[in-house]
Amino acid sequence: MENVNILRLSKEYFRYCIVGAIVTGIDFLLLICEVELLHIHYLTAAFISYTTATVIHYFLSAKYVFTESETEQNFSAFMIFLLLGVLGLGLYELMMFLSVHSLGMHYILAKVFATGVSFTFNFLYRKYLLFN
């Protein structure tokens, strides 16, 4: 039984990585367009792109990642997903700020770092708090 759970978790994590890559691409594209074309401050742009990506991520995760979940796609599940996303957003914005202001990183490199830190964190709390 333990091997079945590990296999299921591995499959979910693999699908989460694929969805995450797609959503991360959208997130990066939005961030760069907002900063470079619209001249929005990088932290504001990061907030907008992350929030947009979180909404897209919910629908893709509910449909393609956590398919064996008992969780239905409904408004309350979506709101919980967004609330959990706020936790991730706080971590993400903190990592962006510290990377740019304390470490002197360019905002795109800081985004790579912040995305890496928050990726597994987001998978784990979404998996165990929402889709379990």
Helices and strands in order:
Elements: H1 2-37, H2 42-65, H3 75-101, H4 107-129
Helix pairs in contact: 1-2, 1-4, 2-3, 3-4
Fold and architecture overview:
By secondary structure, this protein is mostly helical. It has one domain. Helix content is 83%, strand content 0%. The protein contains four helices and no strands. α1 runs antiparallel to α2. The longest helix has 36 residues. The chain is elongated and about 45 Å long. The two termini are 17 Å apart.
Oligomer: single chain
How many domain regions?
Answer: 1
Overall shape: it is elongated
Number of helical segments? 4
Helical content (DSSP H or I, runs of 4+): over 70%
Count all strands and give the number. 0
Low-confidence parts lasting 5 or more residues at pLDDT below 50?
A: none
Distance between the termini: 17 Å
- What's the gyration radius in Å? 16 Å
Element-by-element helix/strand order: HHHH
**Mean pLDDT score, rounded?**
84
Structural class: mainly alpha
Largest sheet: none
Question: Which percent range describes the beta-strand content?
Answer: under 5%
